[in-house]
Fold:
Amino acid sequence: MAIESSCDETAAAVLRGGRTILSNIISTQIPVHRKFGGVVPEIASRKHIVNIMPVIDEALGQAKVQLRDIDQVAVTYGPGLVGALLVGVSAAKALAFSLGVPLIGVNHLEGHIFANFLSDTTLEPPFAALVVSGGHTALVHVKGYNHFTMMGQTRDDAAGEAFDKVARVMGLPYPGGPQIDKLAREGNPLAIDFPQALRDDGSYEFSFSGLKSAVLNYLNSMRQKGTEINRPDVAASFQRAVIEVLAAKSFDALEETGMDTLVLAGGVAANSALEARLREEAAKRKIRFVYPSPILCTDNAAMIGCRGFYQARAGKFADGYLNAVPGLGLSDVEDV
Structure:
């Protein structure tokens, strides 16, 4: 069994063998937080407390198993909102203790990478993973199921964070990423020349704070001049600036390492323009491109269960002192 509660989704899943999903239940809080324009941590924590047991019960019921059939419990312990994480960690620890089964603490970002093993059962390391979420943007060399090397990551804002902040200043409802994606389909991506920071600097690091500021300055300038803002063009041009940097660095990384597989991971993997751009470029270069199904792009427990399975195979278990680590990041992981 796996549990995920890092932000505003309460999720539980039951897996068999690490890559077979028996159930994957997600209770979202988006309608609750939309009125505030973003996630309110205190409200999120309280909703998790209310939802956690019903979601676990539903996951067991859909999987047609009993608690006594569970032989391991995996849970997200970071990164995320500390109060939200603690609800899931506490529930998982209680379940593991009461059932007398091992507990596995999973890095949420590693879970996003492993969602691809559920979408494509033939996928095996090594490959390059582009992790693009609301809190992180990174290129990871996945050398084995328990062996990763960080190639580069964002110096400031994550791509998903930039999407949400730009959506907010444009007056779009929460969550902003899907709204930008939808609006951009009506616009011209070449209408506005927004900056593409660090695109050709030879590194695999990212920076999106300058792009976010450029969009804000553009909007303010247009308003001061009394000029009508073409919102679809702004959305499309901003989105293109993000995607072109992500694509350029991803394929540079593949060329340097000699790998022939690119995996897309994280909440922003659901962005249709990003998926299309990477797919197009991969086909041109004869690179295998793998990305999760839409339900596995969002925060879910099945991906946590898959990652936990491979940690368990390597003997990487947690003890009863497992605690939430809200600032947990992606880092190099060596084989055990």
Notes: The first strand starts at residue 2 and ends at 4. The domain at 126-290 is CATH 3.30.420.40 (Nucleotidyltransferase; domain 5). The chain has a mean pLDDT of 95.
